[in-house]
Structure formats: C-alpha cells, structure tokens
Amino acid sequence: MARSAFDKIKAGLEDAIAFAQGDSERGKVAWAKEGEPQMTSKWPSFVTKDLPDTDAGDAEMMRRWEAYDRDMQALIAAGGVHQDDDGWWVDDATGELIGPDPEIERPLTADELAQGRPFKEALPELYESIQRSRHRLALDGPKKAKP
After folding, report:
1. In this model, does residue 38 exceed pLDDT 60?
2. Calpha distance 76→88 (Å, rounded)
3. Own/partner pairs, 2-8, CB within 8 angstroms, 24+ separation
4. Which residues pair with 81 in a beta bridge?
C-alpha cells in the first residue's frame, strides 16, 4: 500500500526526533519506495553529544573515535568509496555521503589543546579588522525619537 506524502513526512519527523533523543537505529529507518535511495546502518558513525565533560567522558570519546577510525579504515580499504573535496567519504555506487575522514573527527589530545592560542593572538590583523567593523563610530547626527 502506498503511503501518502503526509504519512512519510510524519514518519520522517518521528524518526528524526527519536534519532535526536539517542535512538540512532530508528533515525536510520528507511520508508522510501523501491528504487529510491534509502538510509542504511552500514556506515560507521561517531556521535559524542551524550558524553559528559569528564575524564570518563573523554575516555569514552576516544574509544568511540578509535572504533569509528577502525571501521572507516576497513571501509576505505575495501574500496568502492572516494573522498570529496571537503574530506568526506562518498559511496561510489550511490553517491551517498558516508562520513568525514576519521582524522577530521579525531579528538584533540591534551597537548594539542594546550597549544591552542586565543584568536586575538593567533591572527591579530584579522582580529583587529573584525573589531573595527564591530565598533564603527556613531553617526555625527543620528536621528532621535521624538518625545
């Protein structure tokens, strides 16, 4: 039985809400007609929004990234994918975006975080340019509201 456009939209929204609430498998439910592209669970994913900002959360993030990296490297080694200009891997057969290169998603180490510098120090000319555009001088004779 064919589903109406309203039913498809409703199902899609329900799946999107479930996915946003952490049900990653339901968010990948496919209800497309035969021959249409369908979302599948065959691609690796790296999701960390549920992790706390603690040492345990950091350890779990690294564990998830290592699993993502392993899965992506196996997928890349198997072939049938290519990398686009933005660093995302794409399925050659369907054109479906698989995910970003694992190195793009790699969490920074403590040493890398310690090397970070404030924007003002890292790019002072650009910082000053932005500040000038934010703090333009007021007009000489601005209009005033009538009392």
Report:
1. no
2. 12
3. 2/33, 3/31
4. 91
